[in-house]
Amino acid sequence: MSKNQINKYVWLVETLYKAKKITLREINRRWLETDLSEGLEIPRRTFHTWKNTVEEMFGLVIMCDKSDGDRYYIENREALEDDSLQRWLLNSMSASNTLLENKSLSDRILLENIPSGQDFLDTVMAAMKKSKVLEITYKGYWREHESTFRVAPYCVKLFRQRWYLVGNSVYEGKIRIYSLDRVLDAQLTDEPFSYPKDFSPEVYFEGCFGVIRGDGTGIETVKIKVSANQANYLRSLPLHPSQKETERNADHSIFTLQVRPTFDFQQELLWNGDALEVLEPLWLRNEVAETVKRMWNNYYPEKS
Asked: Would 209 be classed as within a structural domain?
């Protein structure tokens, strides 16, 4: 199946999802506004072929409400809303479609660079699917030389434009996390492994802000005070799924989170500058304050 054809299916899903209910005539009106259409409408027979393919590919049931003017809709919208991977894939492909439809604006579309870690993503996925051990050549940022070892891949996680592999180190016999952009080579081996029934990626990363988990930091209730303006950003893009706004007034908001206050989470708090203040727990408040103090000393050592 060509990439262009998949883009058409994704466009149809996104159009139906946003419209909630829509006629074929209106679908074609919107279709003709895209570069994908090449100026041609979607024939009714082709539309029904696409409809059936979408159901097979994404598990989405497209129905027609004849009592409401033959308007089409996604019957099981919850399949998109409840499945984070499905929604992420469709969002990503939809964004790609939007860019493809506007190639003439390429010099006016600025994108973030993604490190080369995705070069080995196919290999990692193949190893996960076939339950085969990977042989990896890896060079960490804090090591002078690369090393080659074997890992049983359990899951992958995307965080801040980087792909991470979570796997059991065959040599060490413990779970490790590897950043794929630091992998120099990755090869499938013939050595099989059994995915542990008691391992859950969601449980493993429970309470984590990013990918740091194994430093012994437990899940705690973190309370932060955020300026009214900055609070708008946290409402639209929460720091963590557990985030709740417990107080709001004209000057500030109070948010609470159930999270592991690891190094990466502390860095995120500091990114908000003086617009954010840690209230609880006390040890985290003190630790952030010490970091701020050291930052001050870097700029004004004579006043410390």
From this structure: no
State residue 71's pLDDT score: 95
In this model, does residue 114 exceed pLDDT 70?
no
Q: Give the CA distances from residue 35 to residues 7, 26, 54, 145, in Å, rounded to whole numbers and listed in that order.
A: 11, 17, 21, 49
Paired strand residues for 167: 153, 176
CATH number of 239's domain: 3.30.70
Task: Give per-residue pLDDT as tens, 244-281.
Answer: 999 999 999 999 999 999 999 999 999 999 999 999 99
> Does residue 71 sit in the same domain as residue 151?
no
Average pLDDT over the chain, rounded to an integer: 88
Q: Is residue 137 part of a domain?
A: yes
Of residues 302 and 225, more confidence is placed in: 225
Residue 243's identity, in one-letter code, is Q
**Domain total of the chain:** 3
Q: Which domain holds residue 243?
A: 220-302
Distance between CA atoms of 218 and 207, rounded to whole angstroms?
8
Rounded to an integer, what distance in angstroms lies between the CA atom of residue 56 and that of residue 54? 5
101 and 142 inside one domain: no
Enclosing H/E stretch for 284: helix 282-299
Residue 86 CB contacts under 8 Å (≥ 6 apart), including other chains? 58, 59, 79, 80
Q: Are 241 and 248 in contact (CB under 8 A)?
A: no
Asked if residue 121 and residue 100 are part of one domain, the reply reads no
Residue 52 token pair:
């059936």
pLDDT tens, position by position, 20-75: 999 999 999 999 988 788 889 999 999 999 999 988 888 889 999 999 999 999 99
